[in-house]
Amino acid sequence: ASVFSLELANINVDQNLRSQIVPLTFVLIVGTVTVYGLFSAPLARLLKLADENPQGILFAGAGAWVRDIAEALMNLDQQVLLVDSSYANWRETRMRGIPVECASVLSEHILEET
Fold first, then answer.
1. Tens digit of pLDDT for each residue in 2-25?
2. Which residues, at least 6 apart from 41, have a Cβ–Cβ distance to it below 8 Å?
3. Cα-atom radius of gyration of the chain, to the nearest Å?
4. Residue 82 belongs to what H/E stretch?
5. What count of other Cβ atoms lies within 10 Å of the Cβ of residue 22?
6. 10 Å Cβ neighbour count for 59?
7. Residues 100, 93: contact at Cβ < 8 Å?
8. Pairing relation of β-strands 80-84 and 100-102?
9. What pTM, to 2 d.p., does this model score?
10. How far is CA 12 from its chain centroid?
11. Which single residue of 4, 73, 89, 106 could bond 84 by disulfide (Cβ 3.0 to 4.6 Å)?
12. For 19-50, what is each residue's pLDDT tens digit?
């Protein structure tokens, strides 16, 4: 929005209009996130797209702090799965006994499994 506002300055658009673009952009972003946050889960249940009994937590990434959180959750009897495309993170996570997949979180294999 800031870059767009600067470009508008180059083509002589009214200063009042330019000064409103950045705040309007942020209002639009906050509004969109709010609407999607409030209505996506109920809509998914209505359309029968949501799992009635979700099981576990999927983490995108297996960095050190994520492994610590996953381990704490496992100690509370929660199921976790970490997905990371880094072999080093995969190896370290596996050595700690945490369920992990070495893949992109967006890969077809992961999407079908979860």
1. 676 677 667 777 777 777 877 888
2. 50
3. 22
4. strand 80-84
5. 13
6. 20
7. yes
8. parallel
9. 0.54
10. 39
11. 89
12. 787 788 889 999 999 999 999 989 998 998 88
Dist. CA 93–CA 97, nearest whole Å: 7
**CATH number assigned to the domain covering 57-113:** 3.40.50.720
Q: Are the C-beta atoms of residues 59 and 53 closer than 8 Å to each other?
A: no
22 close to 16: Cβ distance less than 8 angstroms: no
pLDDT category, 113, cuts 50, 70, 90?
low
The mean of the pLDDT values for the chain is 86
Query: What is the pLDDT at residue 40?
Result: 92
Q: Which residues contact 93 (CB under 8 A, 6 or more apart)?
A: 62, 67, 70, 82, 84, 100
| Residue 39 near residue 62 (C-beta atoms within 8 A) | no
